[in-house]
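TEACHING EXERCISE
Course module: macromolecular assemblies
Task: Read the component lines below, then compare them to the predicted structure of the full complex.
Student: A.B.
Group: 4
Components provided:
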Amino acid sequence: MTTTPALSLPAAGAPFERVDLPLRELRDDDILIDIAYAGICHSDIHTGRDEWFPAHYPLTPGHEIAGTVAAVGPGVTRHQVGDRVGVGCLVDSCGECEWCKNGQEMFCTKPAVGTYNAQGYDGEWTAGGYAQRVVVSERFVLRIPDAMGLDVAAPLLCAGITTYSPLRRWGAGPGVKVAVVGVGGLGHMAVKIAAAMGAEVTTISRSNAKAEDALALGARAHLATSAENALSEARGSFDLIVNTVSAELPMDSYLRLLRPNGVMANVGLPMTPYSVFPWGVIGGNKVLTGSQIGGIPETQEMLDFCAEHGLGATIEMLDASDPAAVNDAWDRVVAGDVRYRVVIDTSTISAG
Ligand code: NAP
Ligand code: ZN
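Instructor-supplied answer key:
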């Protein structure tokens, strides 16, 4: 059986260990990918610390995968050996339901299969990108444009698409005032993408520590919630708020920042319920909504958009030859210390 060196959590909150993970034999439509880089998304941490619900262990996270095609199954037509490719949050879906047919595979009724911590249609548990190799059906393998480094492309496969999708849906563009709440992995991509779309972007962060960076990322203004009256002074300022915060937020205070008909699109996923007074959305006909990753066609569109505009993630490269380095990186993500996405150099993972 073929295996790959990988990093795995034996239990919630445990230290990472080096393991050899089995890889399935290539099916007709399968692609074997040599992973070069894997981004660390906060969702990996929510999952691997059982913050959402008890996960399945051992767990190899990672749904921001970039690498090259090493081998293809006999029926593969979309990619060839040597192609630069990426894999995001999904690795399978029925391909036949209404949602698969309109390119929103994440809503597949079967349902869709996540890149890790999910059971495939064959009953096997999926394992993600904190590894040197992965096997994925060609339908879920994206083309990474030549103009883009694989390292800065990896985070686009989740952070990029998760922010691009609501920005597109709600019309970010010239004349539109967009606020991005939380300048982390998703947030910094939201700023870059919204600015490239032509929107006027303001970042809302806990402090001024990221103020200078925010302007360099493309924001026109930065607001620190630690400053007295910061939120009340910004009342009625924005057409669209993209909330990327991984913790509970006082929703009503943020809804007040919207102009009439404004939209607050939430992508951050804490486990606490939203608490909103009816007037918070009724006054001003406001929209309180969410957004879940994005489908495969829109993910390709996002990669092409980023290449066209010279965008990639701002990254910190992680050497994972000591697996505990990944646990440390997780702590730094939770502390909001990372500038702005940690990417694992998977060549440093070797079987112990
Ligand atoms: P991240 O890099 O940790 O960024 C989150 C940012 O939120 C931090 O940088 C920080 O920004 C802010 N923040 C953290 N704790 C806070 C607190 N207690 N109060 C206020 N602000 C706080 O995480 P990420 O990878 O971008 O992911 C963000 C969230 O999106 C996670 O919950 C993740 O699971 C979720 N997610 C959702 C989807 C989806 O499909 N909707 C997809 C991927 C990820 P400042 O330092 O600027 O304050
Ligand atoms: Zn993610």
